[in-house]
Write a structure and sequence with these properties.
4-stranded mixed sheet; 3-stranded mixed sheet; 6% strand
């Protein structure tokens, strides 16, 4: 019906939620069907069980019957169930539908499951046994198609005889819906999607960013110069519901299947890191594959971005651990990538993999000048010293360049300001925790698990976000570096404002005062959350109290050291 009525916004929730919904004869019927389905799903989530009234097909009953009370998220057999089969099943208007297959790979506490990379490899193998289609689209579960012409755009590259035969994948930008007017947490990530990836497109091509990417299946099975059989045991001549195909699909979805094979090492998505997307694309380009960045005016896909600070910082911490795993591995972009891709491409990958190292300079600038200021110690040149202007020029030059790039990419001044503040929060908290976690993991003290960023949005939280209010709410230690820095910057700045009022010369500590003042302005949402707000999204009192103690301890330590 969407195709018949030329509806472009085909995600039901987005289509019916739009103020510009295109109405047609079946609109009310479809909306009723969708709302009914939505209610059933919500009822199942609340009750924790599926009513027999909700099961309308034998295939659905068969799939669900395999999930017994003994099944656990980390311990269950594989389940592969065909829900719709192309060429046999029809939609309500009598048209054919694409294959729809439910896949749940086997999990066992005795076998590593390799997080998202392991899930993608299981899907690679299952799809190979069923159709062995030459193209694969990877898409996160929270994303939906914004443009039905997107597959045709990808095919234009792949079928163009003038394109490099080594073209392995087409990457679309990750664009988010629901981000508020001023983008509190810098969720648009314009520096990645509007600067870095287009730049890499002029080299060997952009990296894979985990979603919105069309792959040629053959890239996962060897070098471009090789012509390996994509899957020796595929059964494309049988119905996907046949006993032989389903038996093979269950076999390759088993957790023991990969033992003593090259899966995760030389075949499929690569294991060994939480950022399988960057790691896999770096190795694919090292093998000789190329990629293309396709950024049409109409977004190809839309997804969700964190709308609270806790999820935002935890996401940064998870990325930091994974990126450092790649940066310091055998296949580090700074060594392996530079040699086997190119110098510039290798440096582009390395620029991201060493992100967490920014925690060191950001943390130093967040605390050291301010603590020195509280102890009346000068660590920068005086205003009369010519070197003073070097510091000023570097600060203004770096921020000016970043602001200009942000505006040229379509952003606003306010969004840029929020982005740079979010970057510093990420550096002092998410990157710092990620760096520490990686170091502990490296010596065998800690083992970081894969925590999916929450996509559940509470109504009140969503309202505060749309109003541009920062969301804290959780008594998490990940807030402590931010709140402690906010307190120290505020005390240092006010103390020297008071001294300047008393006619004391501040020429020798002027840069430190500027840094403290800059920190205070950036920390205004934190002060609001700590003192001025009473809603559920405020900073928990426990975190504020601990931060005051930590700030006092840091001051005492600095008074002996400086």
């Amino acid at each position: 019906m969407y195709r018949k009525n030329k509806v472009v916004e085909r995600c039901p929730k987005a289509h019916f939620g739009s103020s510009n919904t295109h109405r047609f004869l079946e609109t009310d019927q479809l909306q009723t069907m969708y709302q009914s389905m939505e209610e059933r799903v919500e009822n199942v989530v609340k009750s924790g069980s599926i009513s027999h009234d909700y099961i309308t097909k034998e295939e659905e009953s068969e799939a669900l019957s395999r999930w017994t009370e003994g099944f656990l998220p980390q311990n269950h057999p594989p389940v592969v169930q065909v829900l719709l089969e192309n060429g046999k099943d029809k939609d309500v208007s009598g048209h054919g539908v694409p294959n729809l297959v439910y896949v749940s790979r086997e999990k066992s506490r005795d076998s590593p499951h390799h997080y998202k990379a392991g899930a993608l490899d299981a899907l690679l193998r299952v799809s190979a046994t069923m159709t062995n289609a030459p193209l694969i689209l990877t898409l996160d579960s929270d994303m939906y198609s914004k443009d039905p012409q997107t597959p045709l755009r990808a095919l234009c590259y792949l079928l163009d005889p003038s394109m490099d035969p080594k073209l392995g994948y087409i990457q679309f930008p990750q664009i988010f819906h629901g981000i508020n007017k001023n983008d509190n947490y810098g969720g648009e990530m314009r520096h990645i999607f509007q600067a870095l990836l287009p730049g890499m497109d002029g080299l060997a091509g952009p990296m894979f960013i985990g979603t919105g990417c069309f792959f040629q299946r053959k890239v996962f099975y060897g070098f471009p110069s090789e012509t390996p059989e994509m899957y020796q045991n595929r059964q494309v001549s049988h119905s996907i519901k046949s006993r032989e195909v389903l038996a093979m699909a269950h076999h390759v979805a088993g957790c023991k299947y990969e033992n003593q094979t090259k899966w995760g090492k030389k075949i499929g998505f690569r294991y060994g890191t939480l950022v399988e997307d960057l790691y896999t694309s770096c190795l694919l380009q090292s093998e000789g594959w190329k990629s293309v960045y396709c950024n049409p005016k109409r977004p190809a896909f839309l997804g969700n971005s964190p709308i609270n600070l806790h999820d935002f910082l935890n996401q940064a911490m998870r990325w930091s651990v994974g990126l450092l795993e790649v940066a310091l591995s055998k296949y580090s972009p700074i060594t392996y990538g530079v040699r086997y891709i190119s110098l510039l491409s290798g440096l582009c990958f390395a620029h991201l993999t060493f992100w967490a190292i920014w925690a060191i300079p950001i943390t130093i600038y967040a605390f050291l000048p301010q603590l020195a200021l509280l102890n009346s110690t000068s660590i920068f040149p005086e205003t009369s010293n010519p070197w003073f202007w070097v510091y000023v020029a570097l600060f203004l030059g770096a921020y000016g360049q970043e602001c200009l790039e942000y505006i040229l990419s379509g952003g606003s001044i306010q969004k840029w300001w929020n982005y740079q503040r979010a970057w510093m929060m990420r550096g002092i908290s998410g990157f710092t925790f990620g760096l520490v976690e990686f170091l502990l993991k490296s010596v065998g003290i800690s083992s970081y698990g894969f925590n999916v960023t929450s996509k559940v949005v509470e109504e009140e939280q969503s309202k505060r976000y749309q109003q541009g209010i920062f969301e804290f709410g959780v008594a998490s230690p990940i807030f402590l570096p931010i709140t402690t820095a906010a307190i120290i910057n505020l005390v240092a700045f006010l103390s020297y404002i008071a001294q300047a009022w008393k006619q004391r010369s501040i020429e020798d500590v002027f840069i430190q005062m500027l840094l403290a003042g800059f920190g205070v302005v950036n920390c205004w949402p934190v002060y609001e959350g700590m003192v001025l707000r009473t809603d559920e999204g405020k900073m928990p009192t426990k975190i504020t109290f601990i931060s005051i103690i930590l700030a006092w301890v840091l001051y005492l330590v600095s008074s002996f050291a400086l």
